[in-house]
Amino acid sequence: MRAKVLVPLGHKRCPDCEQIKPHGEWERNKTSSDGWSSYCRECRARRNRDSYFRRKYGLTQEELQALMEQQGGVCAICLAARPEHVDHDHETGAVRGVLCFSCNAALGQLKDRPDAARRAADYLEGNVWKPTLVASGVYRLPS
């Protein structure tokens, strides 16, 4: 049996962090008996984040932290920014690493195609990729 905890009026006790907090630190919930959510905002956000990574990628927070530590706490591509986005193969669902927003968006814009990424790298290095017109509608690609 749970021990009853006295909570002052206008406050609620969070069962996760076990702190008594004012109603201003809780979300409204019309379906609950007292009109407030079960967990404080901070704990609710953490629980939702944990649940999302577990559901979407099969990762616990410990596994996600270990993955970021393996990368040295930086994005796996640019090696500069803080990694915040889990990158995964859209066909298999396998997690590849953790990227910064910009690098993750860049992979998405390239549609996760390695050939497009190679051409983009060549372009950035000054090796312009220009097909040669051989006949009407027929192009020879540079080797």
UniProtKB/TrEMBL annotation:
SUPFAM superfamilies recorded: His-Me finger endonucleases (SSF54060)
GO molecular function (one): endonuclease activity
Gene3D superfamilies linked to this entry: His-Me finger endonucleases
InterPro entries: Endonuclease_7, Endonuclease_7_sf, His-Me_finger_sf
Keywords: Endonuclease, Hydrolase, Nuclease
Keyword Coiled coil part of the UniProt annotation: no
Name recorded for this polypeptide: Endonuclease VII domain-containing protein
The organism of origin for this protein: Streptomyces hesseae
